[in-house]
Amino acid sequence: MGGELGFFLYPSENEAGEVKLTAVVLDTAIIIKWFKKKDEEFLSEAAALKSDYLNGLLRVAEPDLFLYETGNVLCLKTKLNELQVKERLRNILDLGFEIFSPSAELLGMTSRMALDFGITFYDATFLGLAHLLSYDFITADKKFYNRVKSLSFSHFLGDINKM
Fold it and tell me: What is the DSSP string of 102-162?
């Protein structure tokens, strides 16, 4: 069993004793997989997270940075026009994730994570937020995961079905 954040426990156990993540920070690549299905790995794992979120079984928090990263991908790695990009970003906002702006506490934790693990400040923002909220963090980037896997709250998307 995990820690407690108000009324919300993470991770939780179901009747069979299986651990289920219930409060997470997802890296941007996972959210992209919810909308961009072509040439993507781990689509079924990403779809399961989306389904759990939409069914109220999963709580998702994101740093506001994820909106800019998502916009970047939609503008530079798809053939969407301006109207389509705006629509996709609006759809993402409509999902109702908890979105966090930078704070002194988050920036401090992000700095610590970036320096401790030798990762970009951008990537460390997701880890820092997960740590501060006592949420789990899930990434689709195996190379990044290998750098931070010593953190008990860090998980690789490809391993989600094994949890």
Answer: --HHHHHHHHHHHHHHT--HHHHHHHHHHHHHT-EEEES-HHHHHHHTTSTTEEEGGGGGG
Q: Give the contacts of 145 (CB within 8 A, at least 6 positions apart).
A: 139, 154, 155, 156
Helices 104-117, 121-133: inter-axial angle, 10-degree rounding: 120
CB 113 within 8 A of CB 131: yes
Per-residue pLDDT reduced to its tens digit, 48-81: 999 999 999 999 999 999 999 999 999 998 899 9
pTM for the predicted model, two decimal places: 0.84
Return the CATH fold of 4-162: Rossmann fold (3.40.50)
- The domain spans of the chain are 4-162
Residue 129 backbone dihedrals phi, psi, to 5 degrees: -65, -45
